[in-house]
Amino acid sequence: MQKPPVNSLNLDLLVALRDTLVKLEKEKCKGMILTSESPSVFSAGLDIMEMYRPDHNRARKFWTTLQDTWIKLYSSPYPTVAAINGHSPAGGCLLALSCEYRVMVGPKFTIGLNETQLGIVAPFWFQDCMRNAIGERQAELALTLGKMFSVDEALKVGLIDEIAKDKADAISKAEDFLDEQSGLPALARSTVKVAFREATLNRLLKNREADTKMFLDFISMPKVQQALEMYMQTLKKK
Ligand SMILES: CCCC/C=C/CC(=O)SCCNC(=O)CCNC(=O)[C@H](O)C(C)(C)COP(=O)(O)OP(=O)(O)OC[C@H]1O[C@@H](n2cnc3c(N)ncnc32)[C@H](O)[C@@H]1OP(=O)(O)O
Predict the structure, then answer these.
(1) Which residues line the pocket of ligand 1, CB cutoff 6 A?
(2) Which numbered atom of ligand 1 lies nearest the CA of 114?
């Protein structure tokens, strides 16, 4: 991802990500590493400006493109690794969680689903991804708090799989994971992956319209708009 300054996921970046994932699958990609050009941010998550005083049609397109991107990434037949070389809050954490393996550069960055802290709610499929990675109990604690994990904490709880000393090391460790996968029969590998991910995927696939409506209703609430405005101001002041 290379959308300065913080790879916030706006409609354009989501379209680019989705289209890339579609292309990779068509071209029978053997493996993918998702990382960032930024030296300090993997992705700042959803672009708050897409949710603040939104145009209804654009907001719908934004959300359905996010759903498409997640579905493509989460269900990809080829192996996927996130080389998390910077902070990774909210939607950034979702992207990482949707990959099969996570290597994160330590020690100073943070990762987590922090939505609660912003006065918004991580959608059920974000929550499911966290639950699948760290288990029910830890996910409930993390989600209710909107906890951002340090790299050490993330490793301890199983949110990431390995710590790297810098981006080059993260890419090298990610390549080791892909090398290990490349020796396996591809169909057996992807069938097992789909079996593990099917229930989580189906939950969104069967409820896409309700999930979209929930998002649109949620961001139409004056209280939510107020919370987003205050949060943007805090970020700008910083
Ligand atoms: C039903 C509703 C479901 C909603 C689900 C939502 C999921 C989400 O993803 S919500 C988004 C949550 N994201 C965050 O809380 C992250 C906010 N950003 C940060 O914490 C920090 O920016 C950072 C740790 C990622 C990076 O810090 P750094 O010091 O390097 O950069 P900053 O000076 O803070 O930011 C630079 C620049 O970018 C703007 N910005 C940051 N994050 C976002 C964002 N998510 N959307 C839009 N814009 C963002 C920030 O305001 C700065 O802008 P200016 O340069 O104009 O001041």
Answers:
(1) 5-6, 8, 40-41, 44-49, 87, 89-91, 114-115, 118, 120-121, 123, 215, 218, 235-236, 238
(2) 15
Domain that residue 92 falls in: 11-237
Structure-token match 């080059």, residue found: 168
The residues, any chain, with a CB within 8 Å of residue 161's CB and separated by 6 or more, are: 101, 102, 103, 155
Q: What is the ipTM metric for this complex?
A: 0.98
Indicate the pTM of the whole model.
Answer: 0.98
Split the chain (238 residues) into runs of 10 and give each run's mean pLDDT. Answer: 98 98 97 98 97 96 98 98 98 98 97 93 97 98 98 98 98 98 95 98 98 96 93 88
SS3 call for 105: strand
CB 86, CB 36: distance < 8 Å: yes
Please confirm whether the linkage preceding 185 is cis (ω < 30° from 0).
no
Asked if the structure places residue 4 within a domain, the reply is: no
46 lies in some domain: yes
Tell me, what CATH number does 78's domain have? Answer: 3.90.226.10
Please enumerate in sequence order all residues whose Cβ is within 8 A of that of 32, keeping only pairs 6 or more positions apart, or say none: 24, 76, 78, 79, 80, 81
